[in-house]
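hey
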């Protein structure tokens, strides 16, 4: 196992959660000590409320879309629990979590953490693909864009990424390492020095989140192109047949769907961009492929933005979906309504 006293210099690199990081202390930032608990206090209830509202099916969304959004909210909730609450907060408040030295399940925690993170991202890709099919391929829409297909897609992705992330079990030791360092699990010495493990780790970050970035951008580009072409054609056709350009219910429906799609996709890309940049650049630097070294505060910023992405979808739905906003208001009002009834 790789421990601090085995380092020959203060800048020895150790592997943590798929990153090469120096053993300088990053966990003492007052901003992070406030930010992470506050984010956890917000992230758990908003995702629970989102799951509850979407599960009721009263938001005017198709069952297919609702299934994807519920799955995304559930995975975001698990990321908040497994990453934000079970990893980031103990790192910042290490003295309150001394008991974790005795809990030798960090490698199992790592499998679950990276599996739910992968699923959270790839559910966004699956949702983007579903909306692209619904808008661009009308012939496939009735066969593919169904609740059953969404359920199967969510199930396959969940199993696939649970299996894919089992390699972390062999990469890490079972012991947590959270004191006076930003480390997650203690790393096996042979792993940290192995080129083969470095390649596996690099492939891990190619699969998530690099490929999702490319796929989401590509699918959104195809969707925009199709919408622009079809909307121009429909406007010309309707204007020619009626002598004017009346409102088009179908295009209005597509517009709302596209707004939801683009906001969710854009939110993911913006909030994961820093994390992706650091992951790729630092791995290439550690393998001596490039001379560029990014400061470690870039990684910390990446973590903060990445975890923020698990708490923003509720706001997105509230802003873009009128019926969701109404349901959310009802949920907020409900406790006060009960109190008033009890008083009366």
């Amino acid at each position: 196992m790789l421990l601090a006293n085995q380092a020959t210099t203060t800048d020895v690199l150790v592997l943590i959660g798929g990153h090469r990081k120096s053993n300088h202390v990053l966990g003492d930032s007052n901003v992070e000590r406030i930010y992470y608990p506050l984010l956890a206090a917000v992230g758990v209830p908003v995702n629970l409320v989102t799951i509850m509202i979407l599960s009721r099916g009263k938001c005017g969304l198709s069952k297919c879309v609702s299934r994807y959004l519920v799955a995304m909210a559930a995975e975001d909730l698990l990321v908040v629990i497994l990453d934000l609450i079970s990893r980031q907060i103990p790192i910042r408040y290490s003295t309150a979590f001394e008991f974790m030295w005795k809990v030798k399940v960090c490698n199992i925690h790592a499998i679950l953490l990276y599996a739910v993170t992968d699923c959270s991202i790839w559910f966004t890709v699956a949702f983007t693909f579903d909306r692209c099919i619904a808008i661009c391929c009308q012939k496939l829409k009735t066969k593919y864009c169904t609740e059953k297909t969404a359920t199967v897609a969510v199930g396959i992705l969940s199993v696939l990424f649970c299996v894919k992330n089992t390699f972390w079990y062999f990469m890490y030791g079972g012991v947590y390492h959270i004191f006076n360092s930003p480390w997650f699990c203690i790393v096996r010495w042979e792993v940290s020095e192995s080129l083969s493990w470095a390649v596996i780790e690099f492939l891990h970050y190619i699969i998530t989140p690099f490929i999702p970035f490319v796929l989401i951008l590509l699918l959104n580009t195809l969707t925009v192109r199709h919408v622009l072409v079809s909307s121009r054609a429909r406007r010309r056709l309707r204007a020619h047949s009626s002598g004017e350009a009346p409102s088009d219910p179908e295009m209005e429906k597509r517009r709302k769907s596209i707004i939801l799609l683009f906001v969710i996709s854009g939110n993911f890309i913006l909030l994961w961009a820093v994390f992706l940049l650091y992951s790729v650049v630092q791995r290439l630097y550690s393998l001596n492929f490039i001379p560029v070294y990014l400061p470690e505060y870039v990684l910390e910023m990446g973590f903060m933005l990445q975890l923020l992405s698990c708490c923003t979808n509720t706001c997105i739905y509230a802003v873009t979906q009128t019926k969701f906003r109404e349901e959310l208001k009802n949920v907020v009002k409900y406790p006060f309504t009960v109190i008033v009834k009890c008083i009366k």
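The beta strands are 13-16, 19-22, 172-176, 185-187. The CA atoms of residues 34 and 216 lie 33 Å apart.
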